[in-house]
Amino acid sequence: MEDEKERFNVGFYSQLLSAPLALAKTMSNHSSKDSILSSFEGFRFRKSMAIKLTAFICVWLIVINSLILFRRPASTFYKELHLPLLTGSKSSDSEQSSGYSHNTWNGYSVKPIAYVFPQFHAIPENDNIWGLNWTEWDNVQRATHNTFGLETIRPHPSIGYYDGLEFTTRRRQGQYLRDSGFYGVAFHHYWFGGRPVMDGIISQMLIDGEPNIPFMLSWANEPWTSRWDGRDSSETFIAQDYGTLEDWRKHFDWLLPFFRSPQYIRSDGRLQFAVYKPSHVGKHAGPMYAAWRQWAIDEGLGGLDIIETKWGTDKWSDIPPDAVNQFMPHAGGTDQSKYPLERRLTKVFHRGSMVCWDTTPRHGTEAKTEPTCHPTTWMYSMIDLLRAIKADPNPLGNENFLFVNALNEWGEGNALEPSAQFGDRYGKAMKQALEISDKEHLWRHEYLAERAQTNKEIGELQNTTKADVCVIIHAHKWHKRDQIHNIEIMVRSLQKQNNPNWRAIIYESDRSDFVSDFVLNTFDSRISFFDLPRDLKNEERKPESGYAGFDRVMSEVSTFDPICGNSTYFLWAQASDSYHPTAFDAIVNGTRPADIYSLKIQSKHTIEHVTKGVQGDDEEATPEVKASKFMPYHQRCTRFINNEDKFCLTSIPDFGRFEFSATMFNTEKFLKTGLSFSPIDLPYTFAKNLTKSGWTFVTLKESSACHVMGLEAYSSCATSGNFWFDSPKLDEVRCYRASDFGNIIGKDIKKNDYMYYREHGQCMRYTRGEYLNKVADVTGTKKEKPKDEGGTHVVFVTVVVPPPKATKAAKAAGR
């Protein structure tokens, strides 16, 4: 097929090139026959024809060049010339036309790559095992619901149960991925016993060029066993034997037409080839990979990198790989919010994500399902993943690929393609995540340059002896990087302040000892670490405490950090808080509106305060009265939709309204008065006593942005890749990771309204019947589940996957 394609191309372009020569010959013959012309007229004619011929040839060459460029994308020349490395160029023409979002800077880029499962077309092996024209669509169509009562993910009617070989299908997939911001695709490639299996789609792609998008191959090198469809994995359909040098060469030669394609993905001029299960290659890995790398050079391909796919327990100690990539969920589980936390394993490390996970079509009631998948939460987890890539990129000259599993793993409920449940929202989520990251995130090198410049400017300010605001930050092990509300979010919010004249002192109230290293890596001269004496560090101390540590910092602030000690205002914040860029705008050059200045905050306390009166919290009321005042079920979660500002309140000295993190105190007056926090019982009484003793208290009168997102704020949770659980039990109301929720609240799947979550995302609630039971628990009323809850019910459907019709032939239905 490759030879036929090349013969066609050579013939076509030869005809194009020969056209001007043929025209010139015709014109020459015509002029020679025109003997009746005088010598002068003949000269004038020949001159005129020569000019016309020259112009024609020039135009023709431009046309040919244009056709060649279209035939061979400009990105190929871009890579061969190493222009990103030499010029720091942000894009290539082909990438712009494809809609790929670059996220580039000075030679660095993030290039999202989607895995493609090429099974959705009939092949002889499946015909022999499962029946004529069997594909995995049979499994997808058979399963209707999973054990959470949710419909299994199915293709949207606009794409249907397509044939992956069809030209229109592959063209649509390429266009969809380009429109969604993807750079390329990774096709799962299958090779057993010296021959390819299920290679129809990628072979056809070489002929007609669809999907028209850069591609690479990922060798799915596991043996095919009955584990794939949920049965005992002891039965092997096709064994994986790696053979000897001759077998490696046969495999390499078969791959050569793909490697020679101008669309094949490279990094620094080298071909990129992934191996799905590196541990299975075993002792063959070293010599086989070395042979392939050498042959790639011998064939004039510029070299080859083997990208070894990480599984949960994989380690590399003997032979360091060329590169490692994360294939989710094998590398990091199904909790997408944890993917950015994965540590770099090798010099070249490509991060990964997945869309969703529900193997019901393959495994029936034994399936593994993640019920909290949603395009919105996925988008925010992708934003954080993009930030993590830029904060720790691969060395210059090596790409930063982002491997997303998958375009079309419909048998695993894991598909970027438009679905009946979500439409094209996953594609749009990816595009939006890339756009947000382009605007919001700096590459590490940009960040270091910005920090150096900011540190210099701060040092040159005339008012260097006096900060406008000093932030005393209480950190705890609950604020480490692997936590939902972590200190990185807090510090990044400070660095985005419109008013840069702030200082921050961070202290740690437990013995986790992570803050000093964190402060060192902020590279910000405005931030310092105060190391408390060991006797003030208590491992059991709650994160919202830390009064003793605060008092110790303030007692030494004038000598530890004179600029902070001489600030106009200070505020005491938890490392879980974050600040809007306008938070410090009113405090400029020593402006002092009052002794105490309040900001607007959304926190768990303000949410509880707004809920007061419909929460049955009147201690003197009877249980029945309490229950009648409880928030109606239909308001759970829905109360936040387009109504988040309602829960943002100005901090005032009142119960449920006062928040230290949203209250600025006159630093000079506070230190002269000798005040401390340690005796505080209720924070709002402390502030109220200050106002009674003559401290002036000013609150904002104009409407403005919510200045502070406090601990457990709904809005910050909703944009974190996690979700809020809106329970009638206050001790359960907070932000959850998917894995934490499953372990703490979600064990009994009949209790939670997963269908509401699938529809809206970002917020979970109990089912109506379970909600009424919880209200009864809180108020002391009788539990009585209604006959008709009037809401969504969790439905259990047993999905039976039949055994294969035969086991003699090779199975070709998955990894």
TrEMBL record:
Which UniProt key words apply to this protein?
Membrane, Transmembrane, Transmembrane helix
The record's annotation in Gene3D superfamilies points to: Glycosidases
Q: Does the keyword Transmembrane helix apply?
A: yes
Q: Where are the transmembrane segments?
A: 49-70
Alphabetical list of PANTHER family matching this protein: GLYCOSYLTRANSFERASE (PTHR41244:SF1), RHAMNAN SYNTHESIS F (PTHR41244)
Name of the protein:
Uncharacterized protein
User: What phylogenetic lineage does the species belong to?
Assistant: Eukaryota, Fungi, Dikarya, Ascomycota, Pezizomycotina
